[in-house]
Amino acid sequence: MKTKLLFILLLASFMGNAQFYLNEIMVDPPGDDNPNEYIEIRGTANTALTNMYIVVVEGDGNDPGDVNEVIDLTSQTIGSNGYLVLLTTGHPYTVDSGANIALDLTDGELESQSHTFFLVQTTTPPSTSDDIDTVGGAGDIGDGTPDGTPYTDWTIFDSISLLKDNDGSGEAYAYSNIGFLEDDTSQANPTLFAPAGANIIVTTGAQFDYVARIGNSTGSALTNDETTSDWVGGDLPSGNLPNWTISTTSNRAYPTSFEGSELNHIGSANPSQNTTLSTTDISASNFKISPNPANKFVNIESKNIKVSSVDIYNLLGSKVKSVSQLNDNKVNVESLSRGMYLLKINAEAKSITKKIIIE
């Protein structure tokens, strides 16, 4: 009996010190959801996920806080390389050999926008009859702040929100401190309910269906600078199965430097920057930007590649200048305020992004 009790205490201590992360989530990809959606979890190698669950919570205005989906991870173990990938039978992906694969824990139709994804540990299994937001609003609809049981019984390891006005209520509810909210240009932006200080990025005319941690990040920063952000989000174009590519269209990735990044790393470490650009026909070495810092003009010298256009973004992701045709390989930046910007060079149906400083 003492041996059993000691084992339980040691297990509790180990799990309490371990860290686990929602490393990648793809929902609502182009074409069929099943079997192309997936979730990747990162954590301590070879760790059993005792009493752990992925809980998907409704973010629509008509029934916010309702638990819509529960994925039971209790019988799963992190792979020898620190990754576990949740997939559906018939999936098209190549997964790193060191990762563990869990098949058919869902029906292959993950809840897409508008929801918050949680990775939690709890001794009381979550249920789709649960509601984590019942106080402060009219009737049984809360105020956007998670409260009461079962929420207070959860140990939350990670969370992120993917939001839109999915039911015409004019409202969207985030239960994570970070996330993305689609700006549907055909209607007014929904009223956002979120925890105090939450960083919810509004995506102009784009519904993000992919989020991932940058590299092996562990924090919860969300910025338009890949060197400081812990997360990247993006919209996926049609085609490119099985290795999807984040859209190369402006404002369909955040940080914007990840536009065109390939999703060819399932079950292994995520890129810490857009590695797609290191191709033979367009790469960082093909371009020279000078001067940098600049105050009047930026010169763009290219090696045997014709630049079709140039876009400049501030660090909030807003496009502040667009040049469709270069004059003597120069871009006039006199109108820009002092600070750091992202210079996106478009060439031969590809793009590359470089940081520039305006003095």
UniProtKB/TrEMBL annotation:
<keyword id="KW-0732">Signal</keyword>
<feature type="domain" description="Secretion system C-terminal sorting">
    <location>
        <begin position="289"/>
        <end position="358"/>
    </location>
</feature>
<dbReference type="Pfam" id="PF18962">
    <property type="entry name" value="Por_Secre_tail"/>
</dbReference>
<feature type="signal peptide">
    <location>
        <begin position="1"/>
        <end position="20"/>
    </location>
</feature>
<dbReference type="InterPro" id="IPR026444">
    <property type="entry name" value="Secre_tail"/>
</dbReference>
<protein>
    <submittedName>
        <fullName>T9SS type A sorting domain-containing protein</fullName>
    </submittedName>
</protein>
